[in-house]
Specification:
single chain, 343 residues, alpha/beta, five-stranded parallel beta sheet, 12 strands, 51% helix
Length: 343
């Protein structure tokens, strides 16, 4: 029988991780770096599961064997190709029959594999537990500022030899604002976001600060897990600013695609009550005429600046001008160096 082992982070770097679940299960979430080699298709899993409930495990297993036996050789070849000489770790939902079957097939073919004890569920439990009282592996620096200052562009342009940058909006597939899904589709599940965030911190070196952009508790439909939001609130805070004209220009640059017009109209309708009838009509007219700079100015002056950071309950550790990203990066480095000398 294949050996069963418990999950440790080092397995992600030493083994070829094979997910034997269905494509739908894999798409919802999976172990970092895993490859999907499903025992059953989405439809077959439903069929076998229904048979299990109605007629018991024996008939369900026989039906599963009938459905899959013709694919055994192809599955083994697929796994071996992905493994490329590395040891193989196989998992399914709970470390049950699907991963066991895959591991046995590999052993019979002369390619030993180990089975993940507890399957995906055990891994998921570890991810959730890591955020229950979250402690980052290095100091956190959280970048705040009004909409349009260019915070996301700024952090993604920072030197990766000096800083670890984790772009929460990129992971979530949403910019976090009322128009945050314009030009994007937030397909990601909560579980997948949690895993991506967990993995980003897993990979973060301990010898350099971690840069995040300040977010609310939710980024679109995604929630920050566990105590992560509270940890950000306790981190070093940087307030970034830029002129109104710069902010309008940068925000307009994000929206300057005529294909976004319908999505922008939907987003505008969602904030109609907060804008008020007069302001809504003004911005709607600008949208109808595709005046992107005018739309951006109207949103900055009459929505974003009145809603976000209206009553900021904290004092930043440093303020940085984002008119010039290069100079802003130098200022951030100077601040952090000084903070290290005089904590």
């Amino acid at each position: 029988m294949p050996e069963k082992i418990s999950f440790t982070q080092t397995l992600l770097d030493t083994h070829c991780i094979i997910d034997a679940r269905t494509p739908l299960e894999f798409a919802e979430d999976h172990l970092p770096g895993a490859v999907n080699v499903p025992i059953l298709t989405n439809e077959e899993r439903v069929e076998v599961g229904t048979l299990y409930k109605q007629e018991g495990p024996r008939k369900a297993r026989m039906r599963g064997l009938e459905l899959t036996c013709g694919r055994f050789a192809a599955m083994v070849h697929d796994v071996i190709a992905h493994a490329a000489g590395r040891p193989v770790l196989v998992y399914c939902w709970r470390g049950g029959l699907r991963s066991l079957s895959m591991a046995i097939l590999l052993e019979m073919s002369g390619y030993p594999a180990v089975q993940l004890r507890g399957g995906y569920r055990a891994f998921r439990n570890q991810v959730c537990a890591s955020f229950e009282a979250f402690t980052p592996p290095a100091p956190l620096i959280v970048i705040h500022g009004m909409t349009g200052t260019g915070k996301t562009t700024f952090i993604n342009g920072l030197d990766r030899e000096q800083w670890t940058v984790i772009d929460l909006e990129s992971l979530a597939g949403h910019r976090g604002s009322a128009f945050g899904e314009v030009g994007l589709v937030q397909h990601i599940s909560q579980k997948r976001f949690d895993t991506l965030l967990w993995d980003a911190f897993r990979k973060a070196p301990c010898d350099r600060p971690i840069i995040l952009e300040g977010e609310s508790q939710r980024i679109g439909k995604i929630s920050l897990p566990g105590t992560f939001y509270e940890t950000m609130a306790d981190a070093c805070k940087v307030w970034c600013h830029a002129s109104l004209e710069t902010r309008v220009h940068r925000l307009a640059g994000e929206y300057a695609c005529v294909e976004y017009r319908e999505a922008m109209a939907i987003a505008l309708d969602r904030i109609k009550k907060k804008l008020g009838g007069v302001r809504y009509a003004e911005i709607k007219t600008l949208l109808d005429n595709w005046d992107v700079e005018g739309i951006a100015r109207g949103l900055v002056e009459h929505y974003y600046d009145r809603l976000y950071y209206k009553n900021r309950p904290w004092t930043p550790d440093v303020e940085i001008d984002l008119e010039d990203f290069g100079k802003a990066g130098q200022r951030l480095a100077e601040f952090w160096s000084e903070r290290q000398r005089h904590p």
